[in-house]
């Protein structure tokens, strides 16, 4: 088993401010895992498929967890989920939706499409920090994760 | 009714035998009368058949088809009003369908709007709050006390704005959703709400007591919890400085209703303001002495309305306030239930 510390998180987020704040929260939460950012749904798909320029798995390792925003330009988070759950092995990848919508329509749909968890971006940075700590604790310390290497 | 039958038969015979326009006009009048008497199309047609049989009695068989054909004009004329009414219904129906469709579209647009508000308007607030806090945490030693105060104010303003948006969203969601009413235990709801508000109650050093048994009522649990949270937050918030908030929750059965009381020892509300406090954004105090968004009681009123109940307050300045919510009781049907 690969060391948990080096498990990559793939953050699918188009809003640079949110990326910056999440990175800061992870840093403050002492989360050492490398974070890769995909700003588009299409980019996330390319990254996960190992398409150019993400072919080098040394530089762009398969993530152990995907943080997925739902509202993205063009290919939405929902569509990324649908695509992911259709992939032969990759479909096991745990997905945590991290979005600003609390509408039950979105929540229900995300779970229907196979999200493993659904979190709402908190306004307060302290709450975001708590979210980052809890994510770390649950997904990287407690949770047994599937194999996703083909 | 008998008179009507006689008139109808006479007019029919008149028309078939002499063919006068007057008789045809009378057919229309008789049709109007039939509508007025509450007769249906089938009843008029039955009358017509009886009348026609009488008219044809004693006539030559060879004449009959022609006479019957003429009699049909009479029938058509006497049913003209029915036909028009029917057409009126059809048109009204079509119009109803059209306006329903328009409403559905407006609703969809409103939903899209709410979605945008929840999603897009809150994002910049998160960023304002997050980065001003980052300034405070990472660069505190490089900022003077005034600069630190400014950064804190930015963070607080963003937080306030976010609360406002959250409350507005709740309010509009209440307006859109249809509630399914089920029997719920008020005791269980109050217990849950008090657990939710544990922190707030402790912070204010408030005493909250449930007096007597709380019965069941018909309602939507989530909405009722939401309403109670708002009432209780107000009850512990609006107290004079230095006074320990004391809140008493009780219930009484009143005919087909259950009245849930939330009584406080707060500053009270002048009579002339007691209706207005349930309006959206209605605030009686500046945000410095009693912070809030001014939506809480509007949510209570909208929620209780959705459950076929009502809300009110008994209060006087300095005498505390007693808010009540009337809910329908399980198993007792009234006009709201259908």
Task: State the main characteristics.
heterodimer; A: 150 residues; alpha/beta; 14% strand; B: 338 residues; alpha+beta; 5-stranded mixed beta sheet; 7 strands
Strand segment count of chain A? 5
From the N-terminal CA to the C-terminal CA of chain A, the straight-line distance is 15 Å
| Strand percent estimate of chain B | 5-15%
Tell me, rounded to a whole number, the average pLDDT of chain A.
Answer: 90
Structural class of chain A: alpha/beta
Number of helical runs of chain A?
5
Number of helices of chain B: 10
| Strand arrangement, major sheet of chain A | 2-1-3-4-5
Instruction: Give the helix level of chain A as a range of percent.
Output: 25-40%
Strand content of chain A: 5-15%
Pick out the low-confidence regions of chain B: 334-338
Question: Would you count the extended β strands of chain B for me?
Answer: 7
Task: Outline the fold blueprint.
The complex is a heterodimer of chains A (150) and B (338).
Chain A: E1 9-12, H1 16-28, E2 35-38, H2 41-49, E3 65-68, H3 77-85, E4 95-99, H4 104-112, E5 117-120, H5 125-142
Parallel strand pairs in A: 1-2, 1-3, 3-4, 4-5
Helix pairs in contact in A: 1-5, 2-3
Chain B: H1 2-18, H2 21-36, H3 41-56, H4 64-78, H5 80-138, H6 145-176, E1 182-185, H7 186-196, H8 198-203, E2 207-210, E3 216-219, H9 221-237, E4 246-254, E5 257-264, H10 296-306, E6 310-315, E7 321-328
Parallel strand pairs in B: 2-4
Antiparallel strand pairs in B: 1-3, 4-5, 5-7, 6-7
């Amino acid at each position: 088993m690969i060391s948990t510390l080096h498990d990559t998180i793939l953050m699918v987020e188009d809003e640079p401010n949110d990326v910056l704040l999440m990175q800061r929260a992870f840093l403050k939460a002492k989360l050492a895992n490398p974070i890769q950012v995909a700003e588009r749904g299409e980019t996330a798909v390319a990254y996960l498929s190992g398409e150019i320029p993400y072919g080098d798995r040394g530089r762009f390792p398969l993530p152990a967890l995907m943080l997925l925003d739902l509202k993205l330009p063009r290919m939405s988070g929902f569509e990324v989920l649908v695509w992911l759950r259709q992939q032969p092995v990759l479909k096991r990848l745990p997905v945590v939706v991290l979005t600003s919508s609390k509408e039950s329509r979105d929540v229900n749909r995300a779970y229907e499409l196979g999200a493993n968890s659904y979190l709402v971006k908190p306004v307060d940075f302290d709450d975001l920090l708590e979210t980052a700590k809890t994510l770390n604790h649950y997904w990287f310390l407690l949770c047994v994760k599937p194999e996703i290497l083909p | 009714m008998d008179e009507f039958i006689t008139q109808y038969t006479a007019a029919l015979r008149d028309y078939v035998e002499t063919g006068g326009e007057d008789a045809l006009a009378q057919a229309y009048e008789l049709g109007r009368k039939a509508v007025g008497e509450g007769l249906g199309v089938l009843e008029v047609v039955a009358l017509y058949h009886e009348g026609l049989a009488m008219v044809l009695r004693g006539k030559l068989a060879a004449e009959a088809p022609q006479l019957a054909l003429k009699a049909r004009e009479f029938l058509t004329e006497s049913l003209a009003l029915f036909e028009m009414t029917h057409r009126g219904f059809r048109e009204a129906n079509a119009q109803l369908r059209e306006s329903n469709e328009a409403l559905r579209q407006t609703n969809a647009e409103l939903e899209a709007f709410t979605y945008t508000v929840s999603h897009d308007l809150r994002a910049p607030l998160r960023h304002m709050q997050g980065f001003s806090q980052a300034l405070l945490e990472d660069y505190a030693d490089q900022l003077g006390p005034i600069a630190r105060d400014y950064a804190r104010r930015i963070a607080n303003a963003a937080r306030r704005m976010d609360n406002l948006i959250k409350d507005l969203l709740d309010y509009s969601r209440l307006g859109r959703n249809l509630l399914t009413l089920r029997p719920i235990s008020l005791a269980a709801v109050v217990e849950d709400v008090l657990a939710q508000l544990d922190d707030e109650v402790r912070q204010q050093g408030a005493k909250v007591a449930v007096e007597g048994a709380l019965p069941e009522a018909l309602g939507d649990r989530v909405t009722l919890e939401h309403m109670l949270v708002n009432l209780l937050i107000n009850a512990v918030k609006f107290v004079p400085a230095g006074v320990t908030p004391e809140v008493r929750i009780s219930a009484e059965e009143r005919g087909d209703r259950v009245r849930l009381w939330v009584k406080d020892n707060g500053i009270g509300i002048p009579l002339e303001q007691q209706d207005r406090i349930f309006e959206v954004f209605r605030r009686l105090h500046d945000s410095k002495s009693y912070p809030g968004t001014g939506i809480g009681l509007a949510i209570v009123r909208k929620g209780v309305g959705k459950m076929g109940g009502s809300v009110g307050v008994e209060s006087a300045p300095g005498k505390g306030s007693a808010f009540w919510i009337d809910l329908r009781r399980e198993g007792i049907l009234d006009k709201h239930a259908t």
